[in-house]
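Troubleshooting: if your tokenizer reports a length mismatch, compare your output against this known-good record of 425 residues.
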Amino acid sequence: MLPRRVGIASRSAAVGLRDLIKVAAALNVQATRDLQDIWNISATVTALADPESIEPGVLPIFIVDDVGQEGAAGLHLTDHKQPYALVDAGPTWSLTASHECLEMLVDPSGNRLVSSSAITAAGGKVQDVTTEKFEYLVEVADPSEDPANAYMIDEVLVSDFYTPHFFDPVVSPGVRYSFTGRIKRPREILPGGYISWLNPATGTMQQLRWFGKPEVIELPGHPGQSGRGTLRGFVDENTRPPMRLSRLDGSSYSVTHQRQRAQWLRKASTLRSAAYALARRPGGSATTLPPPNAAQAVLDANKRRLQVPGATKAYVGWHFENNWITRQRAIVVLARRPELSAVQNRLPANLSGIPIDVRPDPRPVRPSPTGTTGMLMAAQPGTVREETQFRKFRARSCLSKRSRRSPDWQQRCASRTSTTYRRQA
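Known-good structure output:
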């Protein structure tokens, strides 16, 4: 079986190649690990560096700042009837990209129908109508598309999807109806989701949506008159979910859970990378690591010397050579990127044999309690995080009494004053 190839490309300045690679890798895992065996589909997902260069055979998903008119997101066809999808470039765009990727892989045409027992909304529930049959549009991610049903691959939020058993006539024990297991029986629609079908008795497209409460509606117009040219495109044009999957609220469970996972992974990944880097150094990983006490003593004795303009933080860490971590302790001084070279020039290469590594400060700029930005000092041996209590230090001016009488003394004094905060754990 030839694999279906999906490529993700960005036409948005908000989504760079690094984000594309991360999300594409997660979607490739979803396609090969989660979807393949369930739907018997072979597929690959890759990041496309250039949205203007799409190789033959690749079905593209474009991340865009503006999808155009309402309902323009989702599946489209080219003049040659080749499918592509548009995804809004919001903070949680990976969830929408996963949704579109899954549906594109299972049904690239956007017109696949599967017949099964009819359903209706009654008493606030979705119920089967065994005396009728509908032809359901295969949209594997719609019935459970609410972000509460999403799951994560690494730190990437991806969509749940139903299995072929979703169209079974009756529920059977031990059968999986969606990947996460949130869907418990055939044709079940979860809150925030929907399903669409062709009603053979009326010849119209209908939909059961659960946006607040379950209800059945008839989609207006005729699919043949849609500009999309597919049943799924017609449904997309006529469906307005209560929330945009690409722009979930930052306080929602899915977003906060994703943020916590990302923070943990970044920490674990850094430590794991350091373990590999240390392992290639002479002596191997079994060598006893030097304690930080000596380096911390040098740091404590040279605080004022390290408080050069542009420096933002100093702590005891590990010395790097050629971007590889070593087993040697170092005094790490952080600085903002525009001032990195200046800080390096203002500091010696080492103090008492302890090397000084000047590195870019990855933290956002935040004002200190006095309204200025200061330099943070790690007070405890081996501490690499800010401390929890602040104590203010002010460098004394070395200006003479005569210079203090000059009109611009205060301005010059302020420019030579640095503020340091110390926080005890």
